[in-house]
Amino acid sequence: DVKVTQSSRYLVKRTGEKVFLECVQDMDHENMFWYRQDPGLGLRLIYFSYDVKMKEKGDIPEGYSVSREKKERFSLILESASTNQTSMYLCASSNYPRGTGMDYTFGSGTRLTVV
Amino acid sequence: QQPVQSPQAVILREGEDAVINCSSSKALYSVHWYRQKHGEAPVFLMILLKGGEQKGHEKISASFNEKKQQSSLYLTASQLSYSGTYFCGTENNQGGKLIFGQGTELSVKP
């Protein structure tokens, strides 16, 4: 089974801190995604990547950046954390070729609290 | 554009049936269905690609209408293990980027 591992289950950070959320997948998947999950809003796409060193903005990229230096690792960066970024963050991966019906595998999530 | 899911929440007794709908204003490339139990990662249930398609088994199945703008998830003879939040995810084109609905919280009571 594909495993998507997020480095932290819970994080508490202060306003203004730079925050790194790490995600690693172990099945050589091409595509990786970062979502945030908030009650009543579902999962909203922040950034995604179809290849190493490649990134594309999702629906809510403001205040975030990403890094994909290796195929298996996709990092989400909060440049200056704010309280409105308190949320559950979910990483997912899927196989190439994209859009042909390959399902996503999600990590267990990182619950980030910014105080 | 985020698909619209309905209902937002549903409470069932064991053995009852439920239908969850997912609608888009435009024709879609595909619809995915996921279930997330509390505190866990969303888990893939199924994907529909063709207009008019129906798939799944007798307990959990889904349909995709001919216009490819609406999908429904059918939960039959519900069990306690069906409890969780159900999400539909939609692709507008063959791009692999899923946009998820707001979710439907399903609670099955004994």
Topology:
The complex is a heterodimer of chains A (115) and B (110).
Chain A: E1 4-6, E2 10-13, E3 19-25, E4 31-38, E5 42-49, E6 56-57, E7 64-70, E8 73-78, E9 87-94, E10 105-106, E11 110-114
Chain B: E1 4-6, E2 9-13, E3 18-23, E4 30-36, E5 43-48, E6 54-56, E7 60-64, E8 70-75, E9 84-91, E10 99-100, E11 104-109
Parallel strand pairs in B: 2-11
Antiparallel strand pairs in B: 1-3, 3-8, 4-5, 4-9, 6-7, 7-8, 9-10, 9-11
**Contiguous helical run count of chain B:** 0
The radius of gyration of chain B is 13 Å
Number of helices of chain A: 0
Give start-end ranges of low-pLDDT stretches of chain A.
none
Total number of beta strands of chain A: 11
**How are helices and strands ordered from N to C of chain B?**
EEEEEEEEEEE
Structural class estimated from helices and strands of chain B? mainly beta
Summary tags:
heterodimer, A: 115 residues, seven-stranded mixed sheet, B: 110 residues, six-stranded mixed sheet
Report on the structure:
Chain A is built from no helices and eleven strands. Chain A is mainly beta and 115 residues long. In chain A, strands 2, 4, 5, 6, 9, 10 and 11 form a seven-stranded mixed sheet that branches. A four-stranded antiparallel sheet of chain A has the order 1-3-8-7, with no helix packed on it. In chain A, β7 and β8 form a beta hairpin. The radius of gyration of chain A is 13 Å and the shape is globular. Chain A starts with a strand and ends with a strand. In chain A, 35% of the residues are buried. Chain B is mostly beta strands and 110 residues long. Chain B has strands spanning 4-6, 9-13, 18-23, 30-36, 43-48, 54-56, 60-64, 70-75, 84-91, 99-100, 104-109. In chain B, strands 2, 4, 5, 9, 10 and 11 form a six-stranded mixed sheet that branches. In chain B, a hairpin with a 3-residue loop joins β6 (54-56) and β7 (60-64). The N and C termini of chain B lie far apart (37 Å). The interface between A and B is medium-sized, with 28 and 28 residues.
